[in-house]
Amino acid sequence: AKIAQINDRYQEERIVFAGDKGMVTPEGKIDLFKGATLALFLNQWREPFGLMLFEALRCGTQVIYTDWGSLPELLSPEFPEFMVSRKRDKVIAQAIEAIEKIANLSEAEERALRRRCYEHARRFTNEIMTERYVRAYYWMLEQRVKQDISSNEP
Q: Which among 30, 42, 94, 143 is least surrounded, fewest beta carbons within 10 Å?
């Protein structure tokens, strides 16, 4: 009921509050992202990866995100203009600035941004991430073996 009240209040502004974790079905989430201009990801904790964020990007939806956890490393090289401070006294003002940037894009610029989002998210598929983790594990094992060998040398 609370989400319905929030959505009724902001319906004219085309703002949808999707709720907390588990409030939207996976299918509903995809439809929501595909129809969205942007998604706010203003987390206040050290996000280790941000799966929802990449789901949005994969649908071509730009994400405004905080400079916290892994998000700057994952996104700032490609989308530095949409990173906002996690500090409570700055986050809302900076998010509004980022929203205004997106709202003022031409149709061609918005299409290009959606394409950039999609292309960026493609670098983080299950297959690619699994391959990267396996390579990292092999590298760590190799380093450990080298360390063990060198520590056993006379």
A: 143
